[in-house]
Amino acid sequence: MTIEKVSGVLLDASDADYLARAMKLLAALLEAKQGSRPSPRLVDLERRLSRASSDATRSTTSGYVSGAKDSADRDALSAYEFVDTERAANILGCTPGNVRDLARRGRLPAVRSGGRWLYPAAAVVARAERQG
């Protein structure tokens, strides 16, 4: 296993879908108004965003964000896996507001990424086990 630096932007499925549709509209407008075709890079990016957003909406584990390769066994949580606020609330049996409050008070570790709060999955599960 190697650790690699990851640099990028995290979009939720609805934002990825919105961006893909906007790119498709831009391409259609360019073609209709100027007879211009979009670059292959734009077409490829739009296709990948569309596919990613449709895959994410169908996924039953969309609350997981992984810093390493996707694990087939979600019971075996690694140190690199994070859950979003909704998933953490489901695991803890509370509201998303309560999860954010736990993070604000330092009771639950959290990081902010792409405008969203992410919580280490192992810490969330450990807290749920202690509560429970």
Task: Give structural notes.
α1 runs antiparallel to α2 and α3 crosses α4. The protein folds into 2 domains: 46 residues; 68 residues, Arc Repressor Mutant, subunit A. About 8% of the residues have low confidence. It has 132 residues and is an alpha+beta fold. The chain contains 5 helices and 4 strands, in the order ααββααββα. A 4-stranded antiparallel β-sheet has the order 1-2-4-3.
CATH superfamily of the largest domain: Winged helix-like DNA-binding domain superfamily/Winged helix DNA-binding domain
Structural class: alpha+beta
Helix content class: 40-55%
Give the topology string: H per helix, E per strand: HHEEHHEEH
- Work out the number of β strands: 4
> What is the makeup of the main sheet?
4 strands, antiparallel
Q: Kindly estimate the percentage of residues that lie in beta strands according to DSSP.
A: 5-15%
